[in-house]
Design brief:
single chain; 23% strand; alpha/beta; 3 domains; five-stranded mixed beta sheet; D-Maltodextrin-Binding Protein, domain 2; 12 strands; 42% helix; 12 helices
Length: 295
């Protein structure tokens, strides 16, 4: 099995889109179809189910997807071991984080890493931080930035880069604030105040725990994916939100937001890098990991 075939199938298994994968590998969709058909004939199993509207993995395709990821990782490690005497590493590393984390933490780290290892290709994917750990565990990424949960899975390594308070935020506008029922901050009626909360993730878990401790059933106005979207909705006066303070500090809407002095405070976010422990045998991941300063 040649490595290119593994890369092509892995890309297709993640994109589930023949045109995107064929564009990525500079081939026509018909050529890509022939590649996949030949691969299925060699394996003796159907890997993909396709019709005019959608593509999906069969059970055998899911198994082969895992095989491709692991084989390509082993291949990269093997290539590096053959080139151990070289001063420069070559290959690629994949990172995942929120948009806020990308410009809050990555600039200096990536600049330094690029200077030390100019031949390494860096792939950065941004999205909801609630998905970060699952993307690492499922081997979609090498390294991710996320808040440390109460307990870390045994197969993950963590290295701290910052501590960020988790805060309640409201619009910095007296009229909007009064309409939301925030005029008397000493006696807030939490069961009436419209709340804008994360759909899932650590911020949602901790805000739910806070309300439960206070014996409050929150009036949830919206459940949102991504902290930046919560800041945006709060700035427009739709409700009160809960976000890590670092998101607010880096938001262009910060001047339109005020932080509520709420007691007891929510548990702060312990923000850092995550990777699979077994990924640290990869020289590229190891080099990146060792460069990260512990704070």
């Amino acid at each position: 099995m040649d490595i290119k075939t593994l890369k092509i199938f892995l890309h297709l298994s993640e994109s589930l889109h023949f045109s995107r994968t064929s564009d990525a590998f500079h081939m026509s969709p018909s050529t890509l179809s022939r590649h996949i058909k030949q691969l299925e004939e060699n394996l003796g199993h159907c890997l993909l189910t396709r019709d005019n509207r959608s593509v999906s993995l069969t059970r055998e395709g899911q198994v082969f997807q895992t095989y491709c990821r692991e084989s390509l990782t082993h291949w990269q490690v093997f290539k590096q071991s053959l080139d151990i005497q070289s001063a420069q590493l070559t290959g690629e590393i994949s990172l995942y984080c929120s948009v806020t984390a990308s410009y809050s933490f990555l600039y200096d780290i990536l600049s330094q890493f690029r200077g030390l290892h100019p031949k390494i290709e860096m792939k950065l994917h941004t999205g909801d931080t609630a998905l970060a750990l699952s993307r690492i565990v499922e081997k979609n990424e090498d390294i991710a930035i996320a808040a440390r949960p109460s307990s870390i899975p045994n197969n993950l390594a963590f290295k701290r880069i910052a501590i960020s308070p988790l805060v309640f935020i409201a619009p910095n506008d007296s009229l909007a604030s009064n309409m939301l029922g925030l005029s008397n901050k000493q006696a807030l009626l939490w069961n009436e105040i419209p709340m804008i909360l994360s759909e899932e993730g650590l911020a949602r878990t901790r805000s739910d725990h806070w309300f439960k401790q206070k014996g409050i059933k929150p009036n949830i106005y919206a459940q949102v994916s991504g902290n930046e979207a919560i800041v945006s909705m709060v700035s427009l006066g739709f409700g009160v939100g809960v976000v890590p303070k670092i998101v607010l500090d880096n938001s262009p809407l910060a001047s339109k937001i005020t932080i509520l002095d709420i007691q007891p405070e929510l548990e702060a976010f312990d923000v850092g890098f995550f990777t699979l422990k077994k990924s640290l045998v990869n020289p590229i991941v190891k080099a990146f990991w060792e460069q990260i300063g512990v704070r």
